[in-house]
Specification:
Subunit structure: Homotetramer.
CATH class of the largest domain: Alpha Beta
Bound molecules: 6-O-phosphono-beta-D-fructofuranose, manganese (II) ion
Family: Belongs to the FBPase class 1 family.
CATH topology of the largest domain: Fructose-1,6-Bisphosphatase, Chain A, domain 1
InterPro entries: FBPase_C_dom, FBPase_class-1, FBPase_N, FBPtase
Number of helices: 8
CATH superfamily of the largest domain: Fructose-1,6-Bisphosphatase, subunit A, domain 1
Radius of gyration: 19 Å
Low-confidence stretches: none
Strand content: 15-25%
GO molecular function: fructose 1,6-bisphosphate 1-phosphatase activity; magnesium ion binding
Structural class: alpha+beta
Number of domains: 2
Keywords: Carbohydrate metabolism, Cytoplasm, Hydrolase, Magnesium, Metal-binding
Number of strands: 15
Shape: globular
Length: 322
């Protein structure tokens, strides 16, 4: 049996980075228990607050965020944290080497209906800079030393990269250990499956309109293939499906609201997912460039996302370049 620790050692990950990862995983195990108890733990439904994005928080968004925040503050290698559910970064330990940025519970509209959600994390070096300042966190995705997500579905799974490929672990409820179940996964380069929230169609820019209408045209259209569509409304679940059987996931820019370049957030959704996708041989772009090459200007910055099977993402990109 190979555990997370076995793989971290195999990839020669430093003890300090391993410690930061284990701190995140400890919290994810607690979140997993709360999700399994669901209504019995009194954790379903809405909290009374809105987050910095103006979205109503679910109780479990707040509980998961607090769990991670408190645990990571006690983790000596962590210098600071930034979270989807925190307006500002939170300084942790003076001597910490890492910044942990996370989406505590991705896909939270799925919580109350017992459908897959997840915790997404991105770990950056702190470089001795002030962890209470936003500027310290504004590093591009290429600086990530580790990224991953814990998916809470029928099974709780960890998908992680420390820059040496992507490994998948399943939480064994008997031993409460994440056990290696898929080593070095690769995304198939071509696909017949796409994921996009079609209800936003009228708000999309022209290149996405054309590309999606060509997908829908199937074997009679210019792409000469019959495509299938899936939409789980949790990025973790879409990325998980794509890692396992390929596909393209899109959350493009749309003009529903002015000055809002897409729905997803660069630093705790776009970047960590892009690291996993690229490490698994896929591609992840914003319609112009690779997401991890974007220089962030704000912790809560949004980004259009096209990720997944390399050939399909290149196709989507070619519509933007045309
Ligand atoms: O975190 C944002 C998120 O919940 C993603 O996980 C998911 O892909 C997307 O929003 C769902 O968006 P929509 O509400 O448009 O279906
Ligand atoms: Mn999210």
């Amino acid at each position: 049996m190979q555990t997370v620790q076995t793989i971290l050692e195999k990839h020669r990950v430093s003890d300090s980075l391993a410690q930061a990862i284990h701190c995140v995983l400890d919290c994810s195990k607690e979140i997993s228990v709360l999700l399994q108890k669901g209504a019995m733990a009194g954790v379903l439904g809405s909290a009374e607050n809105e987050n910095v994005q103006g979205e109503t928080q679910k109780k479990l968004d707040v509980i998961s965020n607090d769990l991670l925040k408190e645990r990571l503050a006690e983790c000596p290698v962590v210098a600071g944290i930034a979270s989807e559910e925190e307006d500002l970064p939170v300084a942790a330990n003076e001597d910490g080497q890492y910044l942990v940025i996370y989406d505590p519970l991705d896909g939270s509209s799925n919580i109350d209906i017992n459908v897959t959600v997840g915790t997404i994390f991105s770990i950056l070096p702190s470089r001795g800079e002030d962890p209470s300042k936003e500027a310290t966190y504004l590093q591009n995705g290429r600086q990530q030393v580790a990224a991953g997500y814990v998916l809470y579905g029928p099974a709780t799974m960890l998908v992680m990269s420390t820059g040496k490929g992507v490994d998948i672990f399943t939480l064994d409820p008997t031993s409460n250990e994440f056990v290696l179940t898929q080593e070095q996964v690769q995304i198939t380069p071509s696909t017949k499956e796409f994921a996009i929230n079609m209800s936003n169609q009228r708000f999309w820019a022209e290149p996405v309109q054309t590309y999606v209408s060509d997908l829908l045209a199937g074997e009679e259209g210019p792409l000469a293939k019959r495509y299938n569509m899936r939409w789980i409304a949790a990025m973790v679940a879409e990325v998980h499906r794509i890692l396992n059987r390929g596909g393209i996931f899109m959350y493009p820019w749309d003009n529903r609201e002015p000055n809002k370049p897409g729905k997803l957030r660069l630093m705790y959704e776009g970047n960590p997912m892009s690291m996993l996708v690229e490490q698994a041989g896929g591609l992840s772009v914003n319609g112009e460039i690779n997401i991890m090459d974007i220089e962030p200007e704000k912790i809560h910055q949004r980004v259009p996302v096209f990720l997944g099977s390399k050939e399909e993402v290149e196709k989507a990109l070619s519509y933007h370049k045309a």
